[in-house]
Design a protein that fits this description.
Strand content: 15-25%
Largest sheet: 7 strands, mixed
Shape: globular
Distance between the termini: 24 Å
Strand order of the largest sheet: 4-3-1-2-9-10-11
Length: 285
């Protein structure tokens, strides 16, 4: 068993938000090798047509698999997951895991039946969200906020940016007015803002995102191919770097290697303007 190669997981997002999911997968499955792929040249996806998003995602993921084969693909982007998954699954035999806002677990946690859903403007308008709420939280009041600044603030954290407290407080006013006790982080960028959000909404008791559910699904898929034991095994070597490569379709974000290391996701290699494959940072082992 010790000679078995570690399973490989490809995590895809339009920007750095998927790092919150990658970090959760790494905590659950420390023996897995991760590749992170971000279409930051196409960021944000919310203002693009569905055919454009589908083609960008499928093309980039196919190119990444040629260089970095994977046992599981995770589309760690809510916008992409709503439109891309059937097309991607039709183009690859690799299992694909998508992400949806965690309405169901939020409905199980809330005590006052008042839930705040924090998502991108594109996500809060999608009909599938109405169906999720009707199916899993029909007895709850669900207040939605789709604020365009949140994803940008999360992206700016990489380069040492600071979340503007006053603007964030103003953006969260509807949740305070509704007295929600549970907030769904309906975009993978938002766990990166969690500490700022907690300061803005101190009365909220439960914060729910999809990271753990995705990690459990990846674990289940690896179990089906007898790879789970290796994926769950902690790596003893202190020099082990869990991310084989961090690939960015545009310029690699300033400070990204250090930011990833702070999440426990130290990369062996960072490539900007990928798939031109120009390495911009090599992390020492």
């Amino acid at each position: 068993m010790n000679d078995q190669a570690p399973p490989r997981v490809l995590v895809f997002d339009s920007g750095v938000g998927g790092l919150s999911v990658a970090a959760c997968i790494h905590r659950y499955l420390p023996g897995a090798d991760l590749t992170y792929l971000a279409d930051n040249a196409g960021f944000p996806y919310g203002d693009k047509s569905e055919p454009v998003v589908i083609e960008r995602c499928c093309t980039l993921i196919a190119r990444a698999l040629e260089q970095y084969p994977a046992d599981v693909i995770v589309v760690a982007c809510n916008t992409a997951s709503t439109v891309v998954l059937p097309h991607l699954r039709g183009r690859t035999s690799v299992p694909v895991v998508g992400v949806v806002p965690a309405i169901k677990p939020a409905a199980a946690k809330t005590r006052n039946r008042r839930i705040g859903l924090l998502a991108t403007p594109a996500t809060v308008r999608r009909p599938y969200l109405d169906r999720l709420i009707e199916e899993f939280a029909g007895d709850c009041r669900v207040e939605r906020i789709g604020h365009p600044g949140l994803v940008r603030w999360a992206e700016e954290l990489v380069a040492g940016g600071v979340v503007p407290a006053r603007e964030l407080a103003d953006a969260m006013e509807a949740f305070r007015d509704a007295e929600v006790d549970t907030v769904v982080l309906g975009c993978t960028h938002y766990p990166l803002l969690l500490e700022s959000l907690k300061r803005s909404l101190p009365a909220v008791r439960f914060w729910v995102d999809s990271g753990e559910a995705i990690a459990r699904r990846v674990a289940w898929l690896l179990e089906q191919t007898d790879q789970l034991a290796v994926a769950e095994r902690s790596i003893a070597e202190p020099a082990h770097l869990p991310v084989t490569a961090a690939l960015f379709s545009g310029p690699s974000p300033e400070g990204i290697a250090g930011f990833m290391s702070g999440l426990g996701l130290s990369p062996r290699r960072v490539c900007g303007d990928w798939p031109d494959q120009r390495p911009v940072a090599i992390e020492a082992g």
